[in-house]
Amino acid sequence: MSLSGGCRCGDCRYDLDRTALPAVYACHCRDCQTMSGAAFTLQAPVPVTSLSQSGQVAEWTKLAGNGHDTIQRACARCMTRLYSVNAGRPGVALLRAGTLDRSDEVAPLLHLWTDRKQAWIALPPEAEAYARAAPAGRMEILFAVNFS
């Protein structure tokens, strides 16, 4: 059995070749706020090879903070962003965790770019949070869960 998700209009669907929910992180950077129209994004780094999709997908390229082009993929009809890929992270898709059919069951393991978070957002006291990007080695906890 696979994990499924899709856009809000139903035209685009995807399956992840896994049964367990992926580990996710919350990104509070201004870029994520602007692109999502929300206070933060929930993203799950997953292997590109584990992702299959159906429906017409629109793509656009944007230069990411790491200096590499990021290809954003969204439903061509309702423009729900589904995932992105970045040449700086070959083989990795950043899945928008809010598009999972079981999105109400995910909770972020990490909070990134909290120096840009909205003032009204209160993180749990036990949250692992970083003012900017996660230090070397910390993102690997997500990869260890999602790539095993």
Kindly describe this structure.
Helix content is 9%, strand content 37%. By secondary structure, it is mostly beta strands. The strands form two sheets. An eight-stranded mixed β-sheet has the order 6-7-8-9-4-3-10-11. A three-stranded antiparallel β-sheet has the order 1-2-5, with no helix packed on it. The longest helix is centred in the first third of the chain and has 7 residues, at 30-36. It starts with a strand and ends with a helix.
Mean pLDDT: 94
Q: Estimate the strand proportion.
A: 35-45%
Category from helices, strands and their pairing: mainly beta
Helical segment count: 2
Radius of gyration from the alpha-carbon trace, in angstroms: 15 Å
Q: How do the strands line up in the largest sheet?
A: 6-7-8-9-4-3-10-11
The end-to-end distance, rounded to whole angstroms, is 16 Å
Q: Characterize the biggest β-sheet.
A: 8 strands, mixed
Runs in which pLDDT lies below 50 for 5 or more consecutive residues are: none
Described by the principal axes of the CA atoms, the overall outline is globular
Number of strands: 11
- Along the chain, the helix and strand elements come as EEEHEEEEEEEEH
Helical proportion, percent range: under 10%
